[in-house]
Amino acid sequence: MSEFSEYIDNYMNENSISSSSLAIDLDMDRALIHRYRKGTRVPSDEQTVCDIAGALRMNTLEKRILFEKYDLVSMGESVVYNYKYVIKLLEDLQTLEKEHMNLLPEIGSFNFSDKDNSVINLSSKEEIIALCADLFSTAPEKQNVKIQMVLQPIYDEILTLIKRVLNSSENIKVEHIVCLEKNAQKNFMNLEIFGKIIPLVLGNVDYNAFYYYDSIINHINEMSLFPNVIIMNDIVVQFDFDMQSGVAIYDKVYSEHMKNKYNRFRDLTEVLLIKSERPLDFLDIYNNIHETTTTAYSLYAQPCLGYCSSTDMFEKYLVQIPHREEFIKGMAYHLGNWENMNFIPPESFCKKIYSYCKISGVRSFMETGRVDELPEALYSPLDKEVRIKMLERLIHLVKADIVNCIFVDEDMPLSKSVYFYWNDAKQVFFHKLGSLDTQQVCINASGMYQSIQDFLCYVNKKMIKKKDETLEVLEGIWREYW
Fold first, then answer.
1. What domains appear along the chain, each with residue ranges and CATH number?
2. Angstrom distance (rounded) from CA 241 to CA 147
3. Mean pLDDT of the chain
4. Backbone phi, then psi, for 276, in 5-degree steps?
5. Is residue 182 a contact partner of residue 215, using CB atoms and an 8 Å limit?
6. From residue 66, how far is each of 56, 59, 74, 119 by CA, in Å?
7. Per-residue pLDDT tens digits of the chain, which is 482 residues long
């Protein structure tokens, strides 16, 4: 018996509703209602579920639960749960700039410089946090500092400390090894990890993450002895899974031993994130996307407008940057110019783009002249005439079935600062919008890619506009501005 059928059966029993009476109300065969209750059949569409909820006189909350149970049985648990975790990730990204940690307790300074060859016992979470705060605060004063960590990103306080204390510290490098869940049924755990480290990736910290696959639970249970390690210069901090006890050791021999062990461990991992911080780095990743792509996806309030630009646009609006002509050639050589409005990308280029966006995102572009796929410091706002031409080209590409605009619900929590783009090579790319040194990151872990694909499967079942309706909306907006 599925959760859906169990919920209906329990509801009918609790409210003394018989299969016969429900069958009469729905004008259905009583045997079919019986199969729904016993789990041997599932309604073929959401309208039938809606009719059942209405006939049972369910309230709003009960209907929502019923539809959630139906989604689980009709689309599968993996799709539904990954959808929920991607939504949670998107919600977290909306609050990316906010701090969520209380003030650290003041329990004194540890002054490691005065404690050569010493061991400090840490007997509480507060002591571990305070010690790390003290340790990190001394880093900007030193030269060529490297912080090496092996810890799961569930320890929000440690990651927040790194972002706060080490922000914009040019002489400090942070390396972080994390375990990703190997069980495909638990991909959502990897999304949680990604959500935890994103503030570091997009912050002003020289941060690099590495990953390996294992069972995450192996690293966060009582039988793990000091599974978390932080190494900085000659100091090693280790603490247990629940952050209740630990030890800090200042010893050059021991720290050298742990650094060597860490480096051997890192050699067995893969790079999780590939960052770009210059326009030409941005161009390299852009070209890599399309060299490995036949189908691409974007998720942002604005539709994917890259195909809708032109060499003319880049020549006119791109600011003066090093290697400007090289950048224009790399970004726009395949896009032609405005003379050919019925432009079709060459066969060597990506054949299909699914752009998950909002109607309000189209209007935002038409109002501001900002193409959010590009860091805004790279170009000046586009004139109204150019915006109209780009919208015309988008409409043409939708008609040609090259770009598929899928308007999601306006309530979907899409971040204003992070643009997602991914492809069929199982790579996920995103970048923070804004300054010229905006970082674009490639996520190499295939488990995260599958979670996002499950998310799209769910969205596709419930998308709010079909192709004809999409064209009607786009053409309506075009007429408004024309």
1. 3-75 (1.10.260.40), 112-271 (3.30.870.10), 275-481 (no CATH)
2. 20
3. 82
4. -130, 140
5. yes
6. 11, 11, 12, 57
7. 789 999 999 999 999 999 999 999 999 999 999 999 998 999 988 899 999 999 999 999 999 899 989 999 888 888 888 888 888 888 877 776 454 444 444 444 555 554 555 888 899 988 999 899 888 888 877 878 899 999 887 788 888 888 877 776 778 899 999 988 887 667 777 888 888 888 787 777 888 899 988 887 776 666 666 789 999 988 999 998 888 999 999 989 999 999 999 999 999 998 887 777 677 777 777 777 666 667 888 888 999 888 788 888 889 998 888 888 888 888 877 777 766 555 565 554 556 888 999 999 999 999 999 988 877 778 899 999 999 989 998 998 898 888 889 998 888 888 777 778 777 666 677 766 655 555 566 676 666 777 888 888 888 877 666 777 889 999 999 999 98
What is the SS3 assignment for 47-79?
HHHHHHHHHCCCCHHHHHHHHHHHHHHHHCHHH
Strands 172-181 and 145-150 turn out to be parallel
Backbone angles phi, psi at 29, to 5 degrees: -70, 135
Express each pLDDT in 278-302 by its tens digit.
Answer: 777 777 777 776 666 678 888 889 9
CB 225: neighbour CB atoms within 10 A? 8
Tell me how far apart the alpha carbons of residues 392 and 388 are, in angstroms, rounded to a whole number: 6
Strands 145-150 and 228-232, sheet pairing: antiparallel
In SS3 terms, the chain reads as CCHHHHHHHHHHHHCCCCHHHHHHHHCCCHHHHHHHHHCCCCCCCHHHHHHHHHHCCCCHHHHHHHHHHHHHHHHCHHHHHHHHHHHHHHHHHHCCCCCCCCCCCCCCCCCHHHCCCEEEEECCHHHHHHHHHHHHHHHHHCCCEEEEEECCCCCHHHHHHHHHHCCCCCCEEEEEEEEEECCHHHHHHHHHHHHHHHHHHCCCCEEEEEEEEECHHHHCCCCCCCCEEEEECCEEEEECCCCCCEEEEECHHHHHHHHHHHHHHHHCCEECEEEECCHHHHHHHHHHHHHCCCEEEEECCCCCCHHHCCHHHHHHHECCCCCHHHHHHHHHCCCCCCCCCCCCCCCCCCCEEEEEECHHHHHHHHHHCCCCCCCHHHECCCCHHHHHHHHHHHHHHHHCCCEEEEECCCCCCCCCCEEEEEECCCCEEEEECCCCCCCEEEECCHHHHHHHHHHHHHHHHHCCCCHHHHHHHHHHHHHHHC
d(C-alpha 307, C-alpha 305), whole Å: 6
